């Protein structure tokens, strides 16, 4: 695996504005990514195009300008704020005589630097290998065919084929180990579900202050810094709230525009904490002028990982930078929808815990089920969750259960039964 941090930290940045692309990558965000990777940007090339060039992405003239800047500054790497094809990368490297990487490779490298736990390192390596698989050919241009001649003919693998086989085997081994870790994580989730402990997941754009808020609320020591993707590995902490009892707060990886799909797939088990949560805290940097766009990007990623239907409380962080006062915003049903606070100073933290407690305590429903005799497994599961208020059997063996449980837990049960439980509902009422 390649590592940008091993190279001299001198980079030329390239950003292209496309007339038909209204949500183009932000150049300021690219500079933050480069800085987070430990690389110095010494010059920036920006240009306008209607569509990417098939050979150089930026066109032959602009590509030559980039090559001239590389020679002038003795740059060691050229970083594009876009996704490049393997052919475009190879053509640019031949022209510039230096290494060329795209936005995806840059993000993967930052993740490789930040991963601390065993699972996190495996996830990053898997994402890097999947990304490398389509770019393996560029490193073996002279070895992609077997040579002919006396003593050289015959069966055997080319070097490229050997590397591809080794890469596939490594990917398979990593996937097996991650599947084992995912099963272990799933056991922990099931234990929390059986004990009916609500899970609150902290989500948001990278560098919005999620880990700082997590530390402030739980008194944890999760690493937090003013940089993109400061923390990757999920952290769970128990917290007691008045009127609710014990809950689990989960800190997760931050999102970003055009998050690589290989990375989303690799972190599937990590993001499962977000999908299975009872409540999401969407942390927003209120002082960021791009906060609205960032919120849309987070919503898009949540939809991609099928976590967009979970109740959400927006947390506007960093109000100290705007000299605002902490407060709670309510909807027409007098339910909290947003909290304004500062994780650094601690202003508004009590309002946040108050809003969380109100949302978790309000979302309970009473449901009466008539379970057939062959659905005893669901009766046992409800007993494990301690949510059965009353039960009785009729002469036909049907079990009539009266349940009191949170709406999110009920929806999770319905999803696990593939909708079958809804067929046995006699009555339901929101408390």
From TrEMBL:
Q: Which residues bind Mg(2+)?
A: 211, 231
Signal sequence segment: none
Q: Which CDD domains match?
A: HflX
Q: Drop me one GO molecular function for this one.
A: GTP binding
**Keyword Magnesium, does the record have it?**
yes
Report the cofactors.
Mg(2+)
The molecule here is called GTPase HflX
Gene encoding the protein: hflX
């Amino acid at each position: 695996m390649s590592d940008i941090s091993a190279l001299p930290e001198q980079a030329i940045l390239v950003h292209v504005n496309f007339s038909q692309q209204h949500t183009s990558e932000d150049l300021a965000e690219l500079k933050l990514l480069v800085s987070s990777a430990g690389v110095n940007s010494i010059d920036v090339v920006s240009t306008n195009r209607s569509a990417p060039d098939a050979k150089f992405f930026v066109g032959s003239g602009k590509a030559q300008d980039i090559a001239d800047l590389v020679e002038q500054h003795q740059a060691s790497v050229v970083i594009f704020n876009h996704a490049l094809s393997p052919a475009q990368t190879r053509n640019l490297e031949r022209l510039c005589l230096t290494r060329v990487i795209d936005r995806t490779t840059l993000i993967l490298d930052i993740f490789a630097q930040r991963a601390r736990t065993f699972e996190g390192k495996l996830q990053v390596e898997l994402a890097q290998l999947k990304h490398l698989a389509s770019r393996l050919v560029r490193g073996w241009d002279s070895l992609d065919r077997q040579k002919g001649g006396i003593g050289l003919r015959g069966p055997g693998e080319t070097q490229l084929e050997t590397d591809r086989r080794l890469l596939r085997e490594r990917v398979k081994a990593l996937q097996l180990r991650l599947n084992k870790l995912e099963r272990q994580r799933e056991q922990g989730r099931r234990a929390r579900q059986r004990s009916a402990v609500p899970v609150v997941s902290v989500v948001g754009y990278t560098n919005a202050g999620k880990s700082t808020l997590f530390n402030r609320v739980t008194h944890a020591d999760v690493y937090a810094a003013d940089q993109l993707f400061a923390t990757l590995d999920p952290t769970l902490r128990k917290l007691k709230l008045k009127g609710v009892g014990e809950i689990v707060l989960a800190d997760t990886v931050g999102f970003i525009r055009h998050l690589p799909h290989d990375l989303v797939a690799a972190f599937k088990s990590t993001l499962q904490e977000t999908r299975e949560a009872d409540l999401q805290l969407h942390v927003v940097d209120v002082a960021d002028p791009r906060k609205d766009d960032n919120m849309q990007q987070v919503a898009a990623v949540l939809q991609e990982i099928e976590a967009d239907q979970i109740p959400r409380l927006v947390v506007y962080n960093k109000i100290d930078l705007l000299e605002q006062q902490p407060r709670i915003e309510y909807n027409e049903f007098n339910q909290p929808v947003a909290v304004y606070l500062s994780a650094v100073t601690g202003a508004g933290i009590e309002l946040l815990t108050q809003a969380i407690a109100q949302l978790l305590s309000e979302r309970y429903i009473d449901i009466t089920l008539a379970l057939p005799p062959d659905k005893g497994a669901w009766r046992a599961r409800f007993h494990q969750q301690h949510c059965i208020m009353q039960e009785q059997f009729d002469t036909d063996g049907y079990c009539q259960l009266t349940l009191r449980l949170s709406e999110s837990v009920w929806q999770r049960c319905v999803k696990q039964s593939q909708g079958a439980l809804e067929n046995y509902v006699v009555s339901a009422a929101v408390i």
